[in-house]
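Archive transcription. Copying these from loose printouts into the bound notebook so they stop getting lost. Printout 1 of 2:
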Amino acid sequence: MSAETFLLTGSMGCIGAWVLRNLVAEGVRVIATDLTTDPVRPGLMMTPAQLARISFVQLDITDLKALQTLVEQEQVTHIIHLAGLQVPFCRANPALGARVNVVGTVNIFEAVRQAQGQVRGLSYASSVAVLGPNHL
């Protein structure tokens, strides 16, 4: 088992489930976070033994204190940030979209900064939606 600990936000999404599978295959310690801890999607592509190697933690990335506490207590060395709301949800509730997609991402960066070198790697995935609609 690796000495690395990966924190994955948005772990119950489609891309998140595949990333979980790959991290487990690499043998690293994995903390999977999302608003839910029900591993329905990851369970479609992993065995119960593989799922048992993952720590599932409910986390709202808009809660900076909870995020900082998790990073510190679990000695997180790498973060893969996939949490975010998709365009239809952001259009329906722009304030929530901004809180999750903007403030939540800033919270990830702040948690890394506050960890003072403990977090050695950060990967952030966005979407084509950041480019805006074609008609603009």
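Printout 2 of 2:
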Amino acid sequence: MDKNITPIEAVKLQQFLCGKLNPDLQVQRRNRPDECAEIHIGDECLGVVSKIIDEGETSYSFEITILDIDLEELE
């Protein structure tokens, strides 16, 4: 099975994540093989979502990276 996130999956993921996290969130697909999609709010990339296929079941993993310098700004 293809691990690329399809356009339909990207729309569904965006609808789901907008409802759960932030209505301004956008899912932007990449067009390379076995690639994840990027999660953006405005111009900032918050993280990536990957498609996981295991034993015929599909799930999605959302990974966010927080840099230490981003946390220093909060002090």
